[in-house]
Protein backbone atom coordinates (compact mmCIF):
# COMPACT_ATOMS: atom_id res chain seq x y z
CA UNK A 1 0.00 0.00 0.00
CA UNK A 2 1.30 3.45 -0.89
CA UNK A 3 2.47 5.48 2.10
CA UNK A 4 0.37 8.66 2.51
CA UNK A 5 2.12 12.04 2.71
CA UNK A 6 3.61 12.04 6.25
CA UNK A 7 3.31 15.84 6.34
CA UNK A 8 -0.49 15.81 6.25
CA UNK A 9 -1.21 13.22 8.94
CA UNK A 10 -1.20 15.28 12.14
CA UNK A 11 -3.35 18.21 13.20
CA UNK A 12 -1.94 21.20 15.03
CA UNK A 13 -3.92 20.06 18.09
CA UNK A 14 -2.13 16.71 18.01
CA UNK A 15 1.24 18.36 17.48
CA UNK A 16 0.73 20.70 20.42
CA UNK A 17 0.56 17.64 22.66
CA UNK A 18 4.19 16.89 21.82
CA UNK A 19 6.71 17.75 24.52
CA UNK A 20 9.77 18.26 22.30
CA UNK A 21 11.53 21.54 21.62
CA UNK A 22 9.67 22.58 18.46
CA UNK A 23 6.26 22.61 20.06
CA UNK A 24 7.15 23.56 23.64
CA UNK A 25 9.49 26.52 23.37
CA UNK A 26 6.90 29.14 22.42
CA UNK A 27 3.43 29.97 23.77
CA UNK A 28 0.37 28.20 22.31
CA UNK A 29 -0.58 31.06 20.00
CA UNK A 30 2.74 30.82 18.13
CA UNK A 31 3.09 28.63 15.02
CA UNK A 32 6.53 27.01 15.37
CA UNK A 33 8.42 26.65 12.07
CA UNK A 34 11.90 26.79 13.48
CA UNK A 35 14.06 23.93 14.88
CA UNK A 36 14.61 20.98 12.48
CA UNK A 37 12.00 18.60 13.84
CA UNK A 38 9.31 17.38 11.45
CA UNK A 39 5.54 17.44 12.01
CA UNK A 40 5.18 13.80 10.96
CA UNK A 41 4.14 10.57 12.63
CA UNK A 42 6.89 8.01 13.06
CA UNK A 43 7.43 5.85 9.95
CA UNK A 44 5.68 2.54 10.59
CA UNK A 45 8.81 0.35 10.21
CA UNK A 46 10.56 2.54 12.78
CA UNK A 47 7.60 2.45 15.16
CA UNK A 48 7.54 -1.33 14.82
CA UNK A 49 11.23 -1.63 15.64
CA UNK A 50 10.85 0.55 18.73
CA UNK A 51 7.69 -1.29 19.82
CA UNK A 52 9.41 -4.65 19.37
CA UNK A 53 12.32 -3.50 21.53
CA UNK A 54 9.95 -2.25 24.22
CA UNK A 55 7.85 -5.44 24.14
CA UNK A 56 10.98 -7.54 24.51
CA UNK A 57 12.62 -5.32 27.06
CA UNK A 58 15.45 -5.03 24.53
CA UNK A 59 16.70 -1.78 26.08
CA UNK A 60 20.27 -2.63 27.00
CA UNK A 61 23.59 -1.72 25.39
CA UNK A 62 24.14 -1.80 21.63
CA UNK A 63 25.99 -4.59 19.81
CA UNK A 64 26.94 -5.29 16.22
CA UNK A 65 27.12 -3.36 12.97
CA UNK A 66 23.52 -3.48 11.71
CA UNK A 67 23.24 0.34 11.50
CA UNK A 68 26.36 0.62 9.34
CA UNK A 69 25.24 -2.30 7.17
CA UNK A 70 21.84 -0.69 6.63
CA UNK A 71 23.49 2.63 5.75
CA UNK A 72 25.87 0.92 3.32
CA UNK A 73 22.92 -0.74 1.55
CA UNK A 74 20.99 2.55 1.53
CA UNK A 75 24.02 4.38 0.09
CA UNK A 76 24.33 1.78 -2.64
CA UNK A 77 20.63 1.90 -3.49
CA UNK A 78 20.03 5.64 -3.29
CA UNK A 79 23.32 7.19 -4.28
CA UNK A 80 24.95 4.39 -6.27
CA UNK A 81 27.87 4.50 -3.82
CA UNK A 82 29.44 1.22 -2.79
CA UNK A 83 32.41 2.75 -0.99
CA UNK A 84 30.91 2.73 2.50
CA UNK A 85 32.90 0.01 4.23
CA UNK A 86 31.34 -1.16 7.48
CA UNK A 87 34.80 -1.68 9.02
CA UNK A 88 35.55 2.00 8.49
CA UNK A 89 32.55 3.19 10.49
CA UNK A 90 32.00 3.96 14.16
CA UNK A 91 28.87 4.56 16.18
CA UNK A 92 28.65 8.02 17.69
CA UNK A 93 25.90 9.50 19.87
CA UNK A 94 24.71 12.07 17.34
CA UNK A 95 26.06 14.05 14.43
CA UNK A 96 27.32 17.09 16.32
CA UNK A 97 29.17 15.05 18.92
CA UNK A 98 30.51 13.00 16.02
CA UNK A 99 31.73 16.18 14.33
CA UNK A 100 33.54 17.13 17.53
CA UNK A 101 35.19 13.72 17.79
CA UNK A 102 36.26 13.71 14.13
CA UNK A 103 37.77 17.17 14.50
CA UNK A 104 39.68 15.98 17.55
CA UNK A 105 41.12 13.18 15.40
CA UNK A 106 42.39 15.43 12.62
CA UNK A 107 43.20 18.70 14.40
CA UNK A 108 44.47 19.98 17.71
CA UNK A 109 43.47 22.66 20.21
CA UNK A 110 43.61 26.10 18.65
CA UNK A 111 43.64 24.81 15.06
CA UNK A 112 41.21 26.75 12.86
CA UNK A 113 38.14 25.21 11.25
CA UNK A 114 36.80 26.57 7.97
CA UNK A 115 33.01 26.71 7.50
CA UNK A 116 30.82 27.92 4.64
CA UNK A 117 28.62 30.58 6.17
CA UNK A 118 25.76 31.18 6.61
CA UNK A 119 25.62 27.81 8.31
CA UNK A 120 23.89 25.75 11.03
CA UNK A 121 24.47 27.87 14.20
CA UNK A 122 25.66 25.01 16.46
CA UNK A 123 28.75 24.75 14.24
CA UNK A 124 29.87 28.00 15.89
CA UNK A 125 28.84 26.89 19.40
CA UNK A 126 30.51 23.48 19.25
CA UNK A 127 33.68 24.84 17.64
CA UNK A 128 33.95 27.49 20.32
CA UNK A 129 33.67 24.95 23.15
CA UNK A 130 36.16 22.74 21.34
CA UNK A 131 38.65 25.60 21.19
CA UNK A 132 38.81 25.71 17.40
CA UNK A 133 38.66 29.24 15.94
CA UNK A 134 36.27 29.55 13.02
CA UNK A 135 37.41 30.84 9.64
CA UNK A 136 34.45 31.76 7.47
CA UNK A 137 34.32 31.05 3.74
CA UNK A 138 30.97 32.56 2.70
CA UNK A 139 28.87 30.80 0.06
CA UNK A 140 28.35 32.81 -3.11
CA UNK A 141 25.08 34.75 -3.65
CA UNK A 142 23.52 31.64 -5.25
CA UNK A 143 24.31 29.68 -2.08
CA UNK A 144 27.10 27.65 -3.67
CA UNK A 145 30.66 27.00 -2.55
CA UNK A 146 32.90 29.68 -4.01
CA UNK A 147 36.25 28.14 -4.84
CA UNK A 148 38.24 31.38 -4.74
CA UNK A 149 36.74 32.25 -1.35
CA UNK A 150 37.45 28.76 -0.05
CA UNK A 151 41.04 28.96 -1.30
CA UNK A 152 41.48 32.27 0.47
CA UNK A 153 39.99 30.83 3.69
CA UNK A 154 42.29 27.78 3.55
CA UNK A 155 45.27 30.05 2.99
CA UNK A 156 44.29 32.25 5.94
CA UNK A 157 43.58 29.23 8.16
CA UNK A 158 46.96 27.62 7.48
CA UNK A 159 48.22 24.04 7.28
CA UNK A 160 46.74 22.80 10.54
CA UNK A 161 43.19 23.75 9.54
CA UNK A 162 40.21 21.47 9.07
CA UNK A 163 37.18 22.09 6.88
CA UNK A 164 33.73 21.36 8.29
CA UNK A 165 31.57 20.88 5.22
CA UNK A 166 27.78 20.90 5.50
CA UNK A 167 26.36 18.73 2.72
CA UNK A 168 23.52 19.26 1.85
CA UNK A 169 23.86 22.74 3.23
CA UNK A 170 21.78 24.01 6.13
CA UNK A 171 20.21 26.66 5.80
CA UNK A 172 20.28 27.24 2.01
CA UNK A 173 19.37 23.67 1.03
CA UNK A 174 22.23 23.65 -1.48
CA UNK A 175 23.07 20.13 -2.68
CA UNK A 176 26.72 20.36 -3.64
CA UNK A 177 27.47 18.71 -6.98
CA UNK A 178 30.09 16.00 -7.48
CA UNK A 179 32.23 18.53 -9.37
CA UNK A 180 31.98 21.13 -6.59
CA UNK A 181 32.91 18.55 -3.97
CA UNK A 182 35.84 17.28 -6.03
CA UNK A 183 37.09 20.87 -6.48
CA UNK A 184 36.82 21.45 -2.72
CA UNK A 185 38.62 18.16 -2.04
CA UNK A 186 41.47 19.10 -4.39
CA UNK A 187 41.80 22.48 -2.76
CA UNK A 188 41.81 20.93 0.71
CA UNK A 189 44.48 18.49 -0.39
CA UNK A 190 46.64 21.28 -1.84
CA UNK A 191 46.43 23.18 1.45
CA UNK A 192 46.88 20.14 3.70
CA UNK A 193 43.40 20.70 5.13
CA UNK A 194 41.45 17.72 6.45
CA UNK A 195 37.73 17.54 5.66
CA UNK A 196 34.91 16.52 7.99
CA UNK A 197 31.56 16.34 6.18
CA UNK A 198 28.30 16.71 8.08
CA UNK A 199 25.95 14.78 5.78
CA UNK A 200 22.98 14.50 8.13
CA UNK A 201 20.55 15.85 5.52
CA UNK A 202 21.78 13.50 2.77
CA UNK A 203 18.55 11.50 2.28
CA UNK A 204 16.43 14.67 2.02
CA UNK A 205 16.73 15.91 -1.56
CA UNK A 206 14.17 17.19 -4.06
CA UNK A 207 12.88 14.89 -6.78
CA UNK A 208 15.38 14.77 -9.62
CA UNK A 209 18.33 15.81 -7.43
CA UNK A 210 21.19 13.47 -6.63
CA UNK A 211 23.12 13.67 -3.40
CA UNK A 212 26.85 12.97 -3.76
CA UNK A 213 28.65 11.59 -0.68
CA UNK A 214 31.83 13.55 -0.03
CA UNK A 215 33.83 10.36 0.45
CA UNK A 216 32.83 9.20 -3.04
CA UNK A 217 34.49 12.04 -4.95
CA UNK A 218 38.08 11.97 -6.18
CA UNK A 219 40.17 13.50 -3.39
CA UNK A 220 37.64 12.58 -0.72
CA UNK A 221 39.59 9.47 0.31
CA UNK A 222 41.01 10.99 3.47
CA UNK A 223 37.73 12.59 4.49
CA UNK A 224 35.51 11.75 7.44
CA UNK A 225 31.73 11.89 7.22
CA UNK A 226 28.88 11.91 9.71
CA UNK A 227 25.55 10.44 8.71
CA UNK A 228 22.37 9.63 10.58
CA UNK A 229 18.71 8.73 10.05
CA UNK A 230 17.78 11.48 12.47
CA UNK A 231 16.81 14.30 10.10
CA UNK A 232 15.14 12.27 7.34
CA UNK A 233 13.01 10.17 9.69
CA UNK A 234 12.67 12.66 12.58
CA UNK A 235 14.61 10.59 15.09
CA UNK A 236 16.56 13.27 16.96
CA UNK A 237 15.07 11.96 20.21
CA UNK A 238 16.46 8.48 19.53
CA UNK A 239 20.15 9.28 19.67
CA UNK A 240 22.47 7.52 17.22
CA UNK A 241 24.70 8.40 14.28
CA UNK A 242 27.60 6.99 12.30
CA UNK A 243 31.07 8.30 11.60
CA UNK A 244 32.47 7.04 8.30
CA UNK A 245 36.09 7.18 7.19
CA UNK A 246 37.39 7.23 3.66
CA UNK A 247 40.09 4.61 2.95
CA UNK A 248 42.91 7.04 3.76
CA UNK A 249 41.26 8.13 7.03
CA UNK A 250 40.81 4.61 8.41
CA UNK A 251 43.80 4.95 10.73
CA UNK A 252 42.41 8.22 12.09
CA UNK A 253 39.02 6.71 12.83
CA UNK A 254 40.74 3.76 14.50
CA UNK A 255 42.08 6.22 17.10
CA UNK A 256 38.54 7.17 18.17
CA UNK A 257 38.37 6.60 21.93
CA UNK A 258 36.27 3.57 22.74
CA UNK A 259 34.07 5.49 25.17
CA UNK A 260 32.59 7.59 22.34
CA UNK A 261 30.74 4.44 21.24
CA UNK A 262 29.10 4.27 24.66
CA UNK A 263 27.02 7.35 23.85
CA UNK A 264 24.48 6.19 21.25
CA UNK A 265 21.29 4.57 22.49
CA UNK A 266 20.60 0.93 21.65
CA UNK A 267 16.93 1.67 20.93
CA UNK A 268 18.08 4.63 18.86
CA UNK A 269 20.31 2.40 16.79
CA UNK A 270 17.45 -0.07 16.27
CA UNK A 271 15.19 2.77 15.11
CA UNK A 272 17.79 4.33 12.80
CA UNK A 273 18.58 0.93 11.30
CA UNK A 274 14.90 0.16 10.63
CA UNK A 275 14.50 3.56 8.97
CA UNK A 276 17.33 2.92 6.51
CA UNK A 277 16.41 -0.69 5.90
CA UNK A 278 12.62 -0.49 5.67
CA UNK A 279 11.75 3.21 5.59
CA UNK A 280 12.39 3.91 1.90
CA UNK A 281 8.73 4.17 0.86
CA UNK A 282 8.01 6.47 3.77
CA UNK A 283 10.99 8.62 2.81
CA UNK A 284 9.80 8.83 -0.79
CA UNK A 285 6.37 9.94 0.39
CA UNK A 286 8.03 12.57 2.57
CA UNK A 287 10.21 13.83 -0.28
CA UNK A 288 7.18 14.20 -2.56
CA UNK A 289 5.40 16.13 0.18
CA UNK A 290 8.42 18.39 0.62
CA UNK A 291 8.56 19.04 -3.14
CA UNK A 292 4.97 20.27 -2.88
CA UNK A 293 5.69 22.38 0.18
CA UNK A 294 8.62 24.13 -1.50
CA UNK A 295 6.41 25.00 -4.48
CA UNK A 296 3.58 26.06 -2.17
CA UNK A 297 5.86 28.34 -0.16
CA UNK A 298 7.22 29.94 -3.34
CA UNK A 299 3.66 30.63 -4.58
CA UNK A 300 2.47 31.97 -1.23
CA UNK A 301 5.45 34.30 -0.87
CA UNK A 302 5.06 35.57 -4.44
CA UNK A 303 1.43 36.37 -3.69
CA UNK A 304 1.55 37.70 -0.13
CA UNK A 305 5.14 38.75 0.53
CA UNK A 306 6.69 39.57 -2.85
CA UNK A 307 9.52 41.53 -1.18
CA UNK A 308 10.81 38.30 0.39
CA UNK A 309 13.19 36.41 -1.88
CA UNK A 310 13.17 32.63 -1.78
CA UNK A 311 15.20 30.29 -3.94
CA UNK A 312 13.88 26.78 -3.20
CA UNK A 313 16.80 24.58 -2.19
CA UNK A 314 17.27 21.10 -3.64
CA UNK A 315 17.95 19.57 -0.26
CA UNK A 316 16.86 19.67 3.41
CA UNK A 317 13.42 20.74 4.56
CA UNK A 318 14.58 24.23 5.39
CA UNK A 319 13.75 27.41 3.47
CA UNK A 320 16.15 30.35 3.62
CA UNK A 321 14.24 33.57 3.13
CA UNK A 322 15.90 36.84 2.23
CA UNK A 323 13.81 39.46 4.05
CA UNK A 324 16.10 42.41 3.46
CA UNK A 325 13.65 43.80 0.90
CA UNK A 326 11.08 44.29 3.67
CA UNK A 327 13.18 47.15 5.03
CA UNK A 328 12.58 46.15 8.65
CA UNK A 329 14.66 48.03 11.21
CA UNK A 330 15.00 44.91 13.40
CA UNK A 331 15.69 41.21 13.01
CA UNK A 332 12.86 39.95 10.76
CA UNK A 333 12.49 36.78 12.86
CA UNK A 334 11.75 38.94 15.92
CA UNK A 335 9.16 40.92 13.95
CA UNK A 336 7.46 37.77 12.65
CA UNK A 337 7.39 36.35 16.16
CA UNK A 338 6.19 39.43 17.98
CA UNK A 339 3.68 40.72 15.45
CA UNK A 340 2.82 37.55 13.53
CA UNK A 341 3.13 34.81 16.19
CA UNK A 342 5.28 32.68 13.87
CA UNK A 343 8.57 31.27 15.21
CA UNK A 344 11.38 31.12 12.63
CA UNK A 345 15.16 31.00 13.05
CA UNK A 346 16.93 34.32 12.94
CA UNK A 347 19.38 34.45 10.05
CA UNK A 348 21.86 36.43 12.13
CA UNK A 349 22.64 33.28 14.15
CA UNK A 350 23.97 31.57 10.99
CA UNK A 351 27.08 33.73 10.79
CA UNK A 352 28.24 36.21 8.18
CA UNK A 353 25.64 36.69 5.45
CA UNK A 354 22.72 35.68 7.65
CA UNK A 355 21.50 39.08 8.89
CA UNK A 356 18.17 40.04 7.33
CA UNK A 357 17.30 36.41 6.55
CA UNK A 358 15.05 33.92 8.35
CA UNK A 359 14.99 30.13 8.17
CA UNK A 360 11.60 28.47 7.85
CA UNK A 361 11.05 24.74 8.48
CA UNK A 362 8.97 23.28 5.62
CA UNK A 363 8.43 19.88 7.27
CA UNK A 364 4.86 20.59 8.23
CA UNK A 365 1.44 20.55 6.61
CA UNK A 366 0.47 22.82 3.70
CA UNK A 367 -2.18 24.30 6.01
CA UNK A 368 0.42 25.36 8.57
CA UNK A 369 2.65 26.84 5.88
CA UNK A 370 -0.29 28.76 4.43
CA UNK A 371 -1.30 30.10 7.83
CA UNK A 372 2.32 31.02 8.65
CA UNK A 373 2.75 33.05 5.46
CA UNK A 374 -0.60 34.75 6.06
CA UNK A 375 0.55 35.73 9.55
CA UNK A 376 3.97 36.85 8.30
CA UNK A 377 2.35 39.03 5.64
CA UNK A 378 0.00 40.58 8.22
CA UNK A 379 2.95 41.24 10.50
CA UNK A 380 4.65 43.49 7.99
CA UNK A 381 1.62 45.06 6.29
C1 LIG B 1 23.65 20.32 9.51
C2 LIG B 1 23.21 19.71 10.81
N1 LIG B 1 24.08 19.01 11.53
C3 LIG B 1 23.73 18.45 12.71
C4 LIG B 1 22.45 18.58 13.21
C5 LIG B 1 22.13 17.98 14.53
O1 LIG B 1 22.27 16.62 14.47
P1 LIG B 1 22.36 15.75 15.80
O2 LIG B 1 21.10 15.99 16.55
O3 LIG B 1 22.50 14.35 15.31
O4 LIG B 1 23.57 16.24 16.52
C6 LIG B 1 21.50 19.29 12.47
C7 LIG B 1 20.15 19.43 12.99
O5 LIG B 1 19.32 20.11 12.45
C8 LIG B 1 21.89 19.87 11.25
O6 LIG B 1 21.03 20.56 10.50
TrEMBL record:
One of its GO terms (biological process) is antibiotic biosynthetic process. Signal peptide: none annotated. Keywords: Aminotransferase, Antibiotic biosynthesis, Lyase, Pyridoxal phosphate, Transferase. Residues 67-375 form the Aminotransferase class I/classII large domain. Its cofactor is pyridoxal 5'-phosphate. It comes from the Bacteria. Its EC number is 4.4.1.13. InterPro entries: Aminotransferase_I/II_large, Class-II_PLP-Dep_Aminotrans, PyrdxlP-dep_Trfase, PyrdxlP-dep_Trfase_major, PyrdxlP-dep_Trfase_small. GO terms for molecular function: cysteine-S-conjugate beta-lyase activity; pyridoxal phosphate binding; transaminase activity. Belongs to the class-II pyridoxal-phosphate-dependent aminotransferase family. MalY/PatB cystathionine beta-lyase subfamily. This is cysteine-S-conjugate beta-lyase. It comes from Amycolatopsis suaedae.
Amino acid sequence: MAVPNPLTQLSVEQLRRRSSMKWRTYPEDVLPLWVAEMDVPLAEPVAQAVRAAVDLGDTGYPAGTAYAEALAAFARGRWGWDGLAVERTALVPDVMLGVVEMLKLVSGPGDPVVVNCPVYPPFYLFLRSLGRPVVEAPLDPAGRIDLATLRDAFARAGERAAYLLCSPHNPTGTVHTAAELADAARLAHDHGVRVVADEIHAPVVATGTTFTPYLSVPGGENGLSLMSSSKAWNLAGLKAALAIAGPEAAADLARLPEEVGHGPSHVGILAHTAALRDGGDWLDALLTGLDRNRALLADLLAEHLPAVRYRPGQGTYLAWLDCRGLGLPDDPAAVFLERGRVALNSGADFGTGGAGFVRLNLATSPEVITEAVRRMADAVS
